[in-house]
Amino acid sequence: MLRLMRLATVVLILMTAAAPAGAAESRTPLVGVNGFATLIRLEPGDSGDDVVALQEALADAGFFHSAVDGAYGRTTESAVVAFHKYLGLERTTVFNALDWIRLELLPDPGLPERYDESDYLEVDLERQLLFLVEDGELAQVIPVSTGGGYTYVSPRTGRPAVANTPQGDHRLRWHQLGWVCDSRTGWCVYKYWAFTDYYGIHGYRHVPAYPASHGCIRVEVWDADWLEPRLASGMPVHVWREPPVVPPPPEPPTVAPAPPE
User: Fold this and answer.
1) What is the distance between the alpha carbons of residues 165 and 158, in angstroms, rounded to a whole number?
2) Which of 6, 62, 84, 223 is the most exposed place for a label (fewest CB within 10 A)?
3) Distance between CA atoms of residues 171 and 234, nearest Å
4) Is residue 127 part of a domain?
5) From CA 67, how far away is CA 133, in angstroms rounded?
6) Secondary structure of the chain: what % helix, strand, coil (to 5)?
7) Which structural domain, as residue segments, surrounds residue 31?
8) What mean pLDDT comes out for the span 138-164?
9) Which of 183, 184, 190, 195 is nearest to 207 (CA)?
10) How many CA atoms lie within 13 A of 256 on its CB side?
């Protein structure tokens, strides 16, 4: 209830402090809120202290892990897209003024409770996001592009195949270093982590905000670099479109006290 009251108060302030009709929205300071001096619309190409504040806020929320340099470049764009995916908003690279409030009042990610796992990956096919969980806590949210659902002719078999990412509970099996190109297909992937016989998580040069792969889980090259030391063979990978309900472990049996001698 307190969170809803804070949001309602902020929205009321914005309604009374907004620019007059016809005024340009871009980079218009509105009001301060929850430690932010101003609410300013930022976009690719911007730079300066406002972008530093954005990068730090995104890093604190788990969307940004690159250098805080005050430049709204590709890594910041990707983090903003991940943030928009997280909330189910339009997947743009522009950080709108009201996004400051959304970021401050970020809801729970809605991940399943894994009672017997501490380090693992969750891949949400609906939101196109990968969640890295370390020591039972959400450590990072990374944008991905998974299987596009289209039909294509497999270069290996010559037969039609459907570009789907296999759902279910998997484990990372093996890992390739650097760029590796398939001599038969010509496809090149970066720092590949296999989780089935045919599919894996890997860096790629083109990672759109929508499902586009043949079934693998694409991440940006800089995300593949960041993930590499944090992943290991045997780590669980859970792929789903709707978060599954994981039953809690059974209660240990009670032991009746020994009768007195």
Assistant:
1) 20
2) 6
3) 5
4) no
5) 22
6) 25, 25, 55
7) 24-104
8) 93
9) 190
10) 3
- Strand bridging mode 168-171 / 137-143: unpaired
Per-residue tokens: 2: 């307190």
pTM listed for this prediction? 0.82
Please count the CA atoms within 13 angstroms of the CA of 71 that sit on its side-chain side.
6
Nearest-CA neighbor of 54 among 6, 64, 142?
64
Instruction: Indicate the SS3 state at residue 224.
Output: helix
Task: Assign residue 85 the CATH number of its domain.
Answer: 1.10.101.10
Q: What's the structural domain count of the chain?
A: 2
Average pLDDT, the chain: 87
Contacts of 99 (CB under 8 A, 6+ apart): 80, 83
Do the domain assignments include residue 121? no
Judge contact between 185 and 155, C-beta under 8 A: yes
68 within domain boundaries: yes
